[in-house]
């Protein structure tokens, strides 16, 4: 594979990116042909209005100037890979503008593998027995980074959007969850809420969020269990969300972003919360 063009090679070095950002008063522009190619390859972006696409491009410019991409297991990062990831990571924030990228300030590195990777896991149960196993990972987020993604899953995002799946948004949702937590805190499905969320004071907003998300997660877990154990229809939302509250939040964010109407039909009580969190124009302004 030929070396990446200078446009991306410069962006991958944060010192130069910061210098260019100061000099240009923003972030390095994205070549028009590259932008058209990446957008056209992702049909779920075609529903965006021209103004929204402009905001998405601006978000991507700044995102690429702030992050460092690394290829692993022989994968060479090129412009298409970096920009494809950027468009998906920035998509949830098109109604926020550049301040939305503050949610990703807790890390810099993004490591991209060609395919899933195997990770060794270890857990000690309540009886003190140590369990070890290997797990195939398509993506992983950790506080402080780096964030890991499998390109084989990222590049097939359009084929999976109809089912509400998007690996990039899923892993970045974990970063949203972790953004204001200490290193000793795990993701729990309750990120710090924007000031004035739903017109509520911060403690009341957090309690309202936890109550509704907890109720809907328990309902979802029951639906998945009924499907797996008794042959009931499998829910539309990714069953991985039944794992815990953090995974439920992540699969909800990916489904909401790429299939908002369907997500709202499945989870009408959660739709207003995500609308308010991501500042969708349909967000309710009155307190519940």
* Cα Rg: 19 Å
CATH H-tier superfamily of the largest domain: Glucose-regulated metallo-peptidase M90, N-terminal domain
CATH fold name of the largest domain: Cyclin A, domain 1
Question: Helix fraction?
Answer: 40-55%
Q: What order do the helices and strands follow?
A: HHHHEHEEEEEHHHHHHH
Taking the sheet with the most strands, its summary is: 4 strands, mixed
Strand content: 5-15%
Based on the structure given, which CATH architecture of the largest domain is correct? Orthogonal Bundle
Strand order of the largest sheet: 1-2-6-5
Please tell me what the overall shape is.
globular
- Low-confidence region ranges: 1-5, 10-20
Can you offer a commentary on this structure?
The protein is an alpha/beta fold and about 290 residues long. It has two domains: about 5-180, Cyclin A, domain 1; about 195-275, no CATH class. Helix content is about 45%, strand content about 10%. The chain contains twelve helices and six strands. The chain has helices at about 5-10, 15-25, 30-40, 50-65, 80-90, 150-155, 155-160, 165-180, 200-230, 245-260, 260-265, 270-275; strands at about 70, 110-115, 115-125, 130-135, 140, 145-150. A hairpin with a 5-residue loop joins strand 3 (about 115-125) and strand 4. Helix 4 (about 50-65) crosses helix 5, helix 8 (about 165-180) crosses helix 10 and helix 10 packs across helix 11 (about 260-265). The longest helix has 29 residues, at about 200-230. It is globular.
